[in-house]
Amino acid sequence: MKKTVLRAGALLGAVLVAAPVMAQDLTFWSWRQEDRAAYEQFIETFEAANPGITVTFETFEATNYNTILSTALAGGTGPDVMMVRAYGGLENVAVAGYLEELTTDSVPALADFAAPALAAESVRADNKLYAVPFASQTQLVIYNTALFEANGLDEPQTWDELVAAAQTLKDAGVIPFANGTATAWQNETVTFGLGSSLMGKAFYDELMAGTADFTDERFTSALASVNELAQEYFPDGFIGLDYPSAQQLFSSGMAGMFVGGSYELATFKAQNPDIELGVFPAPGRAAEDDKLVGLYFDGGYAVNAASPNKEAAITFVNYLASQEFGQAFANTLNNISTIPGVTFDNPLLAEVNELNQSSIPYLMLAHFRYGEPSGSVLIQAEMQKLFAGETTPEAIGEALTTGLAAWYEPFKD
Amino acid sequence: MPQFRMTGRGLWITVLIVPPLAFVALFIVYPIISAFAYAFFDWQGLKRLDFVGLENFHTVLFVEPYRSWTINAFKNNIIVFFALMVLQNGLGFILAYALWRELPGARFHRIAVFLPVVLSTIIVAYLFKLFYHPLFGVVNVTLKNIGLDWLAQPWLGQSSTALGSIIVAQAWHMVGFPTLVFLAGMQRIPSEILDAVRMETESEWVKITKVVWPLVAPSATIVFTLLFVGAFNWFELPYIMGGLDGSPFGSTDVLGLYFYRTAFGNVSSGQQDFGLGSALAVLIFIFIAVIAAVITTRLRAREIQL
Q1: Residue in A96, A182, A374 nearest the CB of B268
Q2: Which residues of B touch A182 (CB under 8 A)?
Q3: Per-residue pLDDT reduced to its tens digit, B111-125
Q4: Which of B49, B59, B260, B269 should one mutate to test binding to chain A, selecting the residue with the greatest count of A CBs within 10 A?
Q5: A211 and A93 assigned to the same domain
Q6: Which domain range does residue A263 map to?
Q7: Same domain as A304, residue A254
Q8: Tens digits of residue pLDDT in A18-76
């Protein structure tokens, strides 16, 4: 009897010691259900190059992802490697101490990443980096090239030309813009997708320096112009039109333009493979004004600080930061990879990547989602009021500034 | 004192009672108590920091912007409760009476009225979202076809109509439930009483107010109390039709959505605060428990034992 126990114990001990050497199973969590096939392909490539490490890809519903992830991490059942959000969404998870800090020692490729991309995945307080940023998104105007050609339109160089183009489409019986604002977050997209060039880089710099706030005339006049354009050239009853309906209006070819993120390009192609798309940054008032797109970073790949397979997890994250992966990511998922040196087969993506060189950050997400009320929640509700005729651009500037003063230091006095 | 032995009957009782008791303790009592406990701490994301006493309760009730969010959501819940009291329970009573009186087609309608209750809330929400679509929705298209263009609205997009539109969807979905409960109550009224009434009066009105209504009081107690609890826990329909933010600008925001946003965050705010969320949950729980208890005892008192 005693012998059996001893043997069993020895065997168990041997297994426990050998297990990590024999195979390391990593779990990898994501909110991109639609990208499952692509990720499984990437993982296969990784596993082939790294025998002994296996990765299981698991996806969760996007809107509740942060909740699910934080709950799992708090309960000690989190994944080894995971997608995390950027900016305020990252801080939520990172400040609780669940994520492993990443440095150029552990992930050397990070040294070449662009600073704004790294900032999106860092915690502001200590500037520590917690994730490898994976994609950038750009807010701009997407248009149906066939409809533009049929109506003899070119990409507008000034705000007046944009209005004129919309009028031409309207006269031809085409809905100029497909956008609707019943879905709250679409209001933010429309505002900064159309308004970034009107607000201008100088406004952004002064806002960040603390010398301007949202009551600034450059900001409020941009909101006024966006509102005028929407009232005239968005679909009838656009304030009651939700996001999926707006997407379908555009992809079905009923509308000429769609103000939205570069992430829409793949969706439109999937909804209607025949549609031909073009992109342009919404112009400023004069042709010589900088044409700015709103740029932000989507999220990153992070390592669980409590992972029992941390070494393997770091190896995997190094792969996710490699140019080889970035290239595959850009080619398969049609997203703008943040990894330097990646080239784009898809001419539209190449163009978006080009436009990103002249950009300001997607304002509320990048800087004003760190406290309650967040700038995004405020601008979404206020723009809905403006579109419904229940407020003015000046009142919005006032509401944003006083609302954010609850936690944003530069506005406090 | 009889000795309790773990044999025979005693064993049976123990075996049958322990699993459900354990279940209730683990999945109902424990979460409620822990929510109470969470509400007294400061949180950073999901990390528990210091004990802060009643600070979280103070914040959600008296500190901006939470104060106006709380008031707005609570106000909307009250509107929902009274509107549904009329649309769902009132209509339910009338439908039940019509079915009970066996008007022509009663057999068909008895099933038709209850059918929507069986549908999943998600289906009902998407169905009505399509109905209210500003461009292609049945409501607007019909209005335009019969020449009432000026009545066509972006129903879910303006603050004046959004909440009402969702309430109508809810009433359509659930009206079968009070109907069924009232109908059951009416069918329990003894025929001698009804015969006696017939000797006295021909008036349907007198019959409803003096006889039927008092005698279905137990049914009323049930549907009123359930409606109250349901209206203040309302979540699914506004979540799907208005979104987590109570779009447009908070006009469809209710306590359920507001609690969810505060505790778990949403994509647009990125903030999660378990302390404030739990404080809200505790307040909602206490409010519902107290008022529901009052409603139940009050309504019980007027029930008549036959």
Answers
A1: A374
A2: 154, 156-157, 247-248
A3: 898 999 999 999 999
A4: B269
A5: no
A6: 137-296+357-411
A7: no
A8: 444 457 899 999 998 888 999 999 999 999 999 989 999 999 988 778 888 888 888 88
The residue of A92, A248, A364 whose CB has the most chain B CBs within 10 angstroms, and thus the best one to mutate to test that interface, is: A92
Residue A248, domain member (yes or no)? yes
Long-range contacts of A44-50 (CB under 8 A, 24+ apart): A45/A324, A45/A328, A46/A316, A46/A319, A49/A319, A50/A315, A50/A316, A50/A319
**Taking CA atoms, what residue in A is nearest to B153?**
A237
pLDDT at res. B202? 82
A184, A237, A238 ranked by CB distance to B247: nearest = A184
Q: Do residues A123 and A163 share a domain?
A: no
Whether the predicted pLDDT of B72 surpasses 70: yes
The confidence score (pLDDT) of residue B234 equals 93
What tens digit of pLDDT does each residue of A185-235 get? 999 999 999 999 999 999 999 999 889 999 999 999 999 999 999 999 999
Q: Do A7 and A68 share a domain, yes or no?
A: yes
Q: Do A144 and A262 have their domain in common?
A: yes
What is this structure's pTM? 0.83
Is A348 domain-assigned?
no
Residues of chain B contacting residue A96, judged by C-beta atoms under 8 Å apart: 44-47
Asked whether the beta carbons of residue A376 and residue B269 sit closer than 8 angstroms, the reply is yes
The answer to whether position A226 is within a domain reads: yes
pLDDT digits 0-9 by tens, A376-386? 989 999 999 99
Helices marked H in chain B — which ranges? 8-24, 30-38, 55-62, 66-84, 91-100, 106-118, 121-131, 138-145, 162-174, 176-187, 191-200, 204-206, 213-215, 217-232, 236-241, 255-264, 274-301
Kindly report the average pLDDT of chain B as a whole number.
Answer: 88
User: Is A21 found in the same domain as A96?
Assistant: yes
Q: What percent of chain A has pLDDT over 90?
A: 59
Residue A177 sits in a domain whose CATH number is 3.40.190.10
- In angstroms, the CA A364 to CA B207 distance is 63
DSSP-assigned letters across all residues of A226-249: HHHHHHHHSPTTGGG--HHHHHHH
Nearest to A369 among B47, B133, B270 (CB): B270
pLDDT band, very low/low/confident/very high, at B270 (cuts 50, 70, 90): low
- Hey, where are the domains in chain B? 70-301
Question: What is the Cα–Cα distance from B270 to B45, expressed in whole angstroms?
Answer: 10
Spatial neighbors of B39 by CB under 8 A, at least 6 apart, are: B56, B57, B275, B278, B279, B281, B282
Q: Are residues A211 and A251 in the same domain?
A: yes
- The Cα–Cα gap between A83 and A326 comes to 15
Residues A76 and A214 in one domain: no
pLDDT in tens, B126-161: 999 999 998 888 998 898 888 888 888 888 888 889
Q: Which fold has domain B70-301?
A: MetI-like fold (1.10.3720)
Q: Which of A370, A384, A406 sits opposite B249 (nearest CB)?
A: A384
pLDDT, position A61: 84
